[in-house]
Give the backbone structure.
Amino acid sequence: MEKVYKVLKNAGGANITLGVLLIVFGVTVGILNIVTGASLLKNRKNILF
């Protein structure tokens, strides 16, 4: 029975770590998108279609 609890503890820790990493990655990508969009808006007069 103790082996089951040990496996569950390790799986739970891994899931929490993965969740935190995904949140950090998502926030980073979001900030980069906002910065890129602001740059495009700033230079919108120079963009030709």
Q: What stands out?
A: Residues 2-42 form the longest helix (41 residues). The mean pLDDT is 93. The helical segments are 2-42.
